[in-house]
Amino acid sequence: MPQARCVSNTHMPHGPLSAARRSAPGHGGTEALGFHDDIAYVDYQGLALDYAEGERLARALGDKSVLILRNHGVLVTARSAAQAFERLYFLERACQAQVLALSTGRKLRIFLIFRAGDCRQFRAGESVGGEERTSCTFRL
User: Fold this and answer.
1) Cα 74–75–80 angle (5° rounding)?
2) 72-107 pLDDT tens trace
């Protein structure tokens, strides 16, 4: 992601659980809307202590902004630290909703279908009054 100015990696509990199922979060929550078709997956192979591992992760990420490292955690790329924090927060919430829904053991009724128009509308909301939305959210 060439426009990325911030890369964050966390080890919150629900992201890796969703990755173990090899399915992106998307069981009906609006938290998942911003991640539709924007998540890549890769197997975790240990600490990234050399350039080769960083290049492998970059190739796996491709043109997506989220990389889920199976059995490890999640990595997001963003234009700012505020945007990275917001993306991590909503990704964890979306994965949490998926894990909780699946833990019921019942058949799920998917009530939100991601349409291209919904995704465009969500992404268009990244700017409010010409300013990055997350800058407004985290202003002191």
Assistant:
1) 135
2) 889 999 988 888 998 898 888 888 888 888 888 887
